[in-house]
Q: What sequence folds into this?
């Protein structure tokens, strides 16, 4: 089932001589439950693509559809709500709110939505992330790996349609990187979450179902990995778990 | 060094908003300082010009009828105390104070004009002044008032030979050098020395000048230091904020080999480069602010009512290089200190990697529950944590706000107290002083009688300047006629004769007539006269005021309630008597001088004296003619019929034994005995239509010799002075409040706006996880409210503390009623604090919304990247 659909996405920065074409007519679709890696060298446009999919940036032209709905047809206010409910963003530098504890950071999107998080769900998520003992810690009191876990928990807690991770292991050591990737893989497996992960690391990309290689804003390669055959099955399991 | 300058420049351009804010802070600080200096310079220059124009452009002037010996002048010229000495007889005299134009100046002409203007002497007497050798001229010259020097009118002829001196600043007592030289030359009696004390002070001359100016400059210095400290905080905050933002970059620089000194130099050079824009801009703005204040002051008429119409020309807007340079240097000093201090703090005991990691806040602890969290939910809770995430910043912000609000509230309070007192003084002026008109003037008529008074009254009314002009009471010459000004001047023989024949022996023997109108009559007897005004008028008799109960009737020379008294005109002393008195006075002066010299003290000749007074003249009952005493007698016998007696203590009675005869104006006016008098004197009560009519009327009165204007009877001017004084205080308070508010506002804008900008990526991060613009707006508004509440609560505590302390102080000095007069209540400052709170919130909201709005318009991705 097609969850995301990108149609002729183009993003141009600057004008005239300074014009930079970050994305150049990019089109692809992402089925529900797929774990997709986007790889490419620095400046290839992969982060721009992720930001546009996450609605934190707008394309110069082209459209993004989520569940068949044009994302950018929404007004600003609705777009914020869209980000809150439909998208979970994971950054390389975590972007946690320094004055909020791990638990508060995690539940922030739900709280913004005016909902009160259920204690059991919070505990479960924290436990799953290995943060149960760190729930009341501020970001400055957590290690990089722990901060990234909080960031992932925040992205996941509201059960968004898609999780977008921008080099989630870029700022971590190999041990923490491995743990984070295993965690993401696990979540994809358990909850059937659709995930788009930007990475430099071919090994990490190979942990995903599908890899899109981008260069100069264009899709260079789009291929399935060995894990792709299990995607449908995982997606169904994930739906069951979520319920 | 080059890379530091380059980096500093790059940082300035890469952080345009911060740079702009820092430049604004420097500009405001320098502008405030420049404004204060310019206003102080303007005030001093105007005051000095006013002294020169109303007094004279010299520190001391010698007046002499004779040519001053060249030897004395040479001695004075050679003295290190004298800067300049000049002889001036001609009409025109050039002074450095008025470059490019000639100032007509002559002290003698001034004396002449003074007497003419104030009618101290008749035209004849003034003419006598032109003959300096005459005794009368000399007497006139030596009387009090002759030391008042005014810039003369054009065309007036000089009478005296004058020498003017400008003294040097260096010596402690240069003035005494001139005095000593005159005394040593034995010319103290012939040379009269005028001293321009105010100019001496303003030119820092001698001990007095130095001390007085030191006092004034101390006050200015205290004011400047207070502002300097407040403004330093503004600049400091600006640097702190802009540098904190780059902490990480400084860490990176250190990690690639930059020394701590180089980091400090980068920040310092950045400060200097920003000063290149901020300081000149601040100076220009300061001049603009000062000029605006100057125009406002001129438009309020404060100067007009304080210095008069011509005083307006004395107000000079002065922009001195000294003040501007001091303001610029102070500004630069602040910038360097702030930049250097911030630089030091940036690198202090910090490993480079700590700075590199500084992008995330080093928050270790947060308060989980807050009132704002309870009130506004998660937005309030987040705002509460944000506000307190940097304690130093929070404390500095609320403290600066609290101090500013307290200062504004306190100065407003002081102004209000002053206004209350001044308003009471104005509204109760009549009640306190017993004056029910705006001005009283004396008017002379060539003839006496009701009609003469009425004619003058009509003349005044016809000018059109007065709302009302009426005869208040008429001494009509009568008081002068009978008044005993100085019993000591009565020759003993005349006094003895008068005592024997016509006085009440136990009462000292002299009479004093008072003629009163009905109102004054009733007031005089506290509303309970022994005989009514109408009855007294009809009976054409007098009430005898004895001061005590009369002795037995048989011992009194009053028969059938009749008292025969004498009337006389005012007559000057005979030439012989006058010469005698002058000689007596001079002998006394000589004795004093010798006594002073004997004791090694400096002798200051008395400028005032000798005094001459009119004499009392008795009546010879047997010869039925006036007693011949000093001067000419133009009188007739007068029998006063006593209608009543009343005991009333008076100073005149207890000191001089003067007995009063009170009668009514009507009786006096109708008395045939007075027809031989040449003129009568009236006192008019005047009320003016408005300020313009007052000015025109004053001019008119001064140019009509039959009317005499006395400054102390010009209640209109007094009231206006109080009112304009209040307006001046009000204006000063407003300017002061504005300055304080501006400092607080700039500081608050700095803190709040940069607080938002610093959290740009953090706020964008929130947006990226779904925070709406409205929620962000709510967040920053909550933060603003917290800053304002913190500052205002603290301001309330400070202000209440100040009121409490003032009340304690007032009670301690035993004046509890003063607390009420000053309005020292705890509720009084609340409205000002309330207004301040609203203004502070408005400023905070603007400071927060501008950067937030701008940030929200940018793509989230851009903001997420932060400043890196």
A:
């Amino acid at each position: 089932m097609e969850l995301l659909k990108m149609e002729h996405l183009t993003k141009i920065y600057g004008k005239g001589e300074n014009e930079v074409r970050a994305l150049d007519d990019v089109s692809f679709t992402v089925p529900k439950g797929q774990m997709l890696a986007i790889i490419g060298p620095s400046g290839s446009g992969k982060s721009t693509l992720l930001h546009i999919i996450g609605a934190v940036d707008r394309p110069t032209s082209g459209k993004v559809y989520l569940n068949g709905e044009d994302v950018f047809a929404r007004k600003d206010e609705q777009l914020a709500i869209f980000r809150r409910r439909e998208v979970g963003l994971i950054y390389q530098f975590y972007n946690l709110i320094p004055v909020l504890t791990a638990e508060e950071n995690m539940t922030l999107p739900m709280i913004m939505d005016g909902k009160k998080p259920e204690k059991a769900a919070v505990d479960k998520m924290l436990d799953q992330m290995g943060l149960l003992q760190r729930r009341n810690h501020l970001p400055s009191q957590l290690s990089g790996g722990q901060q990234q876990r909080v960031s992932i928990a925040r992205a996941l807690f509201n059960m968004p349609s898609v999780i977008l991770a921008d080099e989630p292991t870029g700022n971590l050591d190999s041990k923490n990187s491995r743990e984070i990737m295993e965690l993401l893989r696990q979540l994809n497996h358990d909850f059937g979450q659709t995930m788009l992960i930007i990475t430099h690391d071919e090994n990490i990309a190979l942990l995903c179902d599908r890899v899109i290689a981008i260069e100069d804003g264009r899709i260079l390669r789009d291929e399935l990995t060995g894990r792709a055959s299990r995607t449908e099955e995982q997606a169904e399991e994930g739906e069951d778990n979520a319920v | 060094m080059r890379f530091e300058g380059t980096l500093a420049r790059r940082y300035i351009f890469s952080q345009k908003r911060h740079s702009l804010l820092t430049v604004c802070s420097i500009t405001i600080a320098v502008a405030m300082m420049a404004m204060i200096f310019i206003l102080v310079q303007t005030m001093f220059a105007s005051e000095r010009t006013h002294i020169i124009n109303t007094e004279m452009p010299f520190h001391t002037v010698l007046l002499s009828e004779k040519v001053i010996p060249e030897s004395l002048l040479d001695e004075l010229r050679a003295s290190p105390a004298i800067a300049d000495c000049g002889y001036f007889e001609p009409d025109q005299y050039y002074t450095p104070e008025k470059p490019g134009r000639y100032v007509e100046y002559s002290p003698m002409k001034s004396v002449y004009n003074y007497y003419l203007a104030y009618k101290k002497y008749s035209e004849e007497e003034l003419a006598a002044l032109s003959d300096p050798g005459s005794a009368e001229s000399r007497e006139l010259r030596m009387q009090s008032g002759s030391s008042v020097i005014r810039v003369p009118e054009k065309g007036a002829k000089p009478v005296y030979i004058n020498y003017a001196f400008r003294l040097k600043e260096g010596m402690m007592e240069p003035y005494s050098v001139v005095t000593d030289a005159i005394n040593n030359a034995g010319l103290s009696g012939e040379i009269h020395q005028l001293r321009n004390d105010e100019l001496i002070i303003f030119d820092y001359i001698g001990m007095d000048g130095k001390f007085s100016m030191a006092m004034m400059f101390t006050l200015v210095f205290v004011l400047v230091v207070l502002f300097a400290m407040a403004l330093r905080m503004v600049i400091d905050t600006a640097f702190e904020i802009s540098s904190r933002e780059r902490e990480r970059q400084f860490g990176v620089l250190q990690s690639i080999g930059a020394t701590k000194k180089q980091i400090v130099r980068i920040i310092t050079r950045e400060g200097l480069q920003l000063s290149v824009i901020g300081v000149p801009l601040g100076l220009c703005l300061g001049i603009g602010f000062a000029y605006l204040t100057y125009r406002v002051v001129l438009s309020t008429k404060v100067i007009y009512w304080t210095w008069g119409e011509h005083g307006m020309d004395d107000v000079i807007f002065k922009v001195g290089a000294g003040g501007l340079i001091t303001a610029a240097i102070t500004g630069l000093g602040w910038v360097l200190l702030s930049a250097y201090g911030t630089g030091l703090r940036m690198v202090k005991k910090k490993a480079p990697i700590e700075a590199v990691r500084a992008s995330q806040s080093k928050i270790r602890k947060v308060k989980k529950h807050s009132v704002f969290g309870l009130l506004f939910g998660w937005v309030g809770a987040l705002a509460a944590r944000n506000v307190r995430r940097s304690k130093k910043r929070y404390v500095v912000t609320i403290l600066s706000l609290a101090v500013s609000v307290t200062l504004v509230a306190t100065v407003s309070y002081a102004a209000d107290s002053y206004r209350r007192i001044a308003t009471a003084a104005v509204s109760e002026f009549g009640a306190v002083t017993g004056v029910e008109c705006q001005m009283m003037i004396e008017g002379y008529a060539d003839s006496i009688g009701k009609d003469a008074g009425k004619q003058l009254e009509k003349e005044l009314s016809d000018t059109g300047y007065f709302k009302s002009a009426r005869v208040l009471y008429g001494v009509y010459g009568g008081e002068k006629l009978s008044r005993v000004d100085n019993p000591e001047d009565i020759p003993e023989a005349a006094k003895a004769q008068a005592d024997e024949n016509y006085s009440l022996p136990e009462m000292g023997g002299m009479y004093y007539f008072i003629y009163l109108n009905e109102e004054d009559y009733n007031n005089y007897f506290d509303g309970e006269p022994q005989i009514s005004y109408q009855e007294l008028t009809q009976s054409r008799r007098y009430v005898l005021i004895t001061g005590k109960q009369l002795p037995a009737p048989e011992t009194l020379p009053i028969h059938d309630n009749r008292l025969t008294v004498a009337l006389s005109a005012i007559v000057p002393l005979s030439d012989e008597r006058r010469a005698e008195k002058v000689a007596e006075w001079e002998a006394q002066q000589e004795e004093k001088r010798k006594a002073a010299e004997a004791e090694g003290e400096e002798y200051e000749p008395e400028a005032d004296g000798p005094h001459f007074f009119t004499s009392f003249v008795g009546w010879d009952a047997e010869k039925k003619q006036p007693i011949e005493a000093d001067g000419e007698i133009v009188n007739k016998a007068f029998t006063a019929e006593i209608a009543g007696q009343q005991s009333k203590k008076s100073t005149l009675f207890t000191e001089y034994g003067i007995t009063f005869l009170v009668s009514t104006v009507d009786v006096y006016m109708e008395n045939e005995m007075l027809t031989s008098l040449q003129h009568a004197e009236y006192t008019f009560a005047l009320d003016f239509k408005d300020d313009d009519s007052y000015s025109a009327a004053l001019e008119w009165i001064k140019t009509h010799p039959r009317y005499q204007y006395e400054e102390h009877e010009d209640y209109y001017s007094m009231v206006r002075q109080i009112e304009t004084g209040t307006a001046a205080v009000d204006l000063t308070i407003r300017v002061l409040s504005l300055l304080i508010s501006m400092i607080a506002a700039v500081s608050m804008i700095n803190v709040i706006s940069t607080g938002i900008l610093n959290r740009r990526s953090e706020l964008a991060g929130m947006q990226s996880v779904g925070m709406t613009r409205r929620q962000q707006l709510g967040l920053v508004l909550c933060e603003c409210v917290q800053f304002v509440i913190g500052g205002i609560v603290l301001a309330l505590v400070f202000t209440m503390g100040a009121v409490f302390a003032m009340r304690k102080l007032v009670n301690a000095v035993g004046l509890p009623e003063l607390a009420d007069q000053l309005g020292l209540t705890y509720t009084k400052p609340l409205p000002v604090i309330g207004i301040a709170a609203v203004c502070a919130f408005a400023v905070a909201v603007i400071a927060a919304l501008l950067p937030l709005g701008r940030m929200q318009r940018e793509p989230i991705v851009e903001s997420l990247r932060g400043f890196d």
About this structure: Residues 27 and 509 of chain B are 79 Å apart (CA to CA). The radius of gyration of chain B is 38 Å.
